[in-house]
Amino acid sequence: MNTLIWQENQQQLVMVWRNESQQKPPKAIVPVIQCSADAVLKNAHTRTATLWRGDFHQAKSIFAALKKRLRKPPKSNLKDSKPIDAASAFHAHRMKQAQYSALVNMLVVEISAGFTLNLPRAPDVSAALRDVYGENNQTSFLLPLSQLLGFIGAHEWHKTGVEVAALGQRIHVPFGVFSPLRGEYLELVAHTPLPKPCQTAFDIGTGSGVLAAILAKRGVPHVVATDNNLRALESAKANLTRLGFSQHVDLQVADLFPEDSADLIVCNPPWVPAKPTSTIEAALYDPNSAMLNSFLTQVTLHLNKEGEAWLIMSNLAEHLGLRAENELSARIKDSGLHIVETRHSKPTHAKAADVDDALAFARSQEITTLYRLKHINKAL
């Protein structure tokens, strides 16, 4: 964590700077009771943070105005042909996102001890921040208002939960854990025939525990779910207990595989080979396809002789020019596995149909696929 020092009311203040994004801390701090969005933006361009000391609802209005100034309506890409260089279009989009985030994160607030926001008309944010950071803070710290509002929204989603049709119940997911808002891959796992026999299954990178829960509901007697994110494992434990599957699922801390082998191994790795820029993006981006490659390299060592590995992938990376069209199938073959069957689903989330999305040229063609894989010498 970085420590920031500034002068305010003839006193020197020192506080920790917290930011979930991988951005440089502010060079300077300017405390204000009120100001315009233009003033905040002017400060932000010099990496000077505007520390809001005024009314909370006014801060939200300034933040909304700031976003409006930075987000000009994008030109539709769907109506145009695919860019000559899709990968360059993707990286330009990511750069624009990073620049936007760096600027809006320069409007900040002070979080006092006990996760308290001491601003006029401020809500109680303690539960939302405890959901993110755990135990109460003893000293004040600075936090981008953008992220505070995100934490509040994530906390409400955590309480409400996400309806999962394959379970007939809700999954509750805290900030920093991948949320199964995209249901098409869940339906693929729920309806693909299980291998025979199927006494043990591994769920690699379980996250919220939703796939482990689906496998348990389908009658797999013993499921081992792994993750290297402790927050994810806590979320999975709470969900599985709530759903009544805790006795059928063993949660383990692991980078990928547990010990031993299984009849079925399921993995839904991040689909896009790019570098995440924040904690929440770690479940979306897989730098250099590290998790995918490690899974394919090691899976045959843990797959029973007659077993199946189910790899769930989107072809978004192919449409973005980040992975060659036949690269994945070649990697699968090189790993000693054979594709027995592929099952496909078309995404139904909002961005898939948004013609104004900067990556609409790729999202409009995206397909999610479940690859049924077996040892080459046992392929059907």
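(ticket continues) Second input and output from the same batch:
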Amino acid sequence: MKKYKFSYGGCLLGSAEKKAILKVVNSNYWPLSKEGEKMEKEAAKFLGVKYGILANSGSSAGLLALSALELPKGSEVIIPAVTFPTIFNIILQCGLTPVVVDSKIGTYNLDPNEIEAAISEKTKAIIIVHAVGNPVDWVKVQEVAKKHNLITILDNCDGFGTSLNGKKVEQYADISFTSFHAAHIVAMGQGGGVFTNDEELARKVRMYRDWGRQSDIPRRTNGDKWPTLPEDYDSRFIYEKIGYNLSPLELQAAMGRVQLKKTEKIKKLRARNFAYLYEKLSKFEDLIMPRWVEGAEPSWFAFPLSTKSKRGPLVAYLEKNGIETRSMFSGNILRHPGYINVEHRSMITNGSDCNFILTNSFWVSVHPRYTPKDLAGMVKVFEDYYKA
């Protein structure tokens, strides 16, 4: 793996995380247990919602969230073109149809004003993606969702801790999910979580995660609830759903609990680095700076940029000089080979912003391991490129 002077990901592990992990390792019981229960409650409380359910990845968390909604087969789900591919995948896996709308240069999110044009009689839900932690205008999203009776799902994998108008963004959605991958804001090494205020949805998410059964309930007999099973059957092992096995390990939850306490500090450090890069890179006329909605307090995952000229030469120069870059997720997911012939409905045209994002957008690091003094070195590389 290439070593960079400025990489965008990686865990910041201290002695407290290592101590928590080692305690679980020495317990000789690694499946999700007490640490997991505590992490779920603490994360939900931090976000201001009632229920949290851990998963083994952000992608799995998304699958669980959508599965728990149990939408009729063939229903449509609106998603943005700039998205991680698993968002498209989970819709297909649930027997649903993706409806792809444009993402906008600068915010890299969908425009809530364009949602209504994508709605048909089959549309049941919308997945809002907060690209690199940047929130959308949820007031407008909720207006449209309420008018058309749409379920709102938030993919906040990039931006755990993001707030809008003084509220954590998870409070705006019917159900949300996030990632605790090593590259993200709160790290469990690998992991994710689903969050909601709906008790029944939370129950279903947990069942779909745990083989389709309610393994966390107290032992009791079946009684006459399920007439196909004996009355004395242990209800903990009644399989109500066609589920999965998507739990993380207990040691991951122990690590996550320590990281969770650092969220606001990490968020502030990332915001500091973001502000520094915004100030210093704004002078380059070739670069299109990021934008965000009023009232947003993003938990920035990275610093997104677009170039008015060709992206390739700049990105190659940055990489050559030790600055890790990454394209803006899929750009336009519909132009990737795996998605060309799959069933979907598209609102994308040749002039859509997502096509420009595909060819001209990328991001660089705002990782909290770096200080503004460090980032001055990154800015110097940009200066050298544009002087040449």
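Agent notes: The longest strand covers residues 123-129. The chain has one domain: 1-210+245-388. Closing as not reproducible unless the customer responds.
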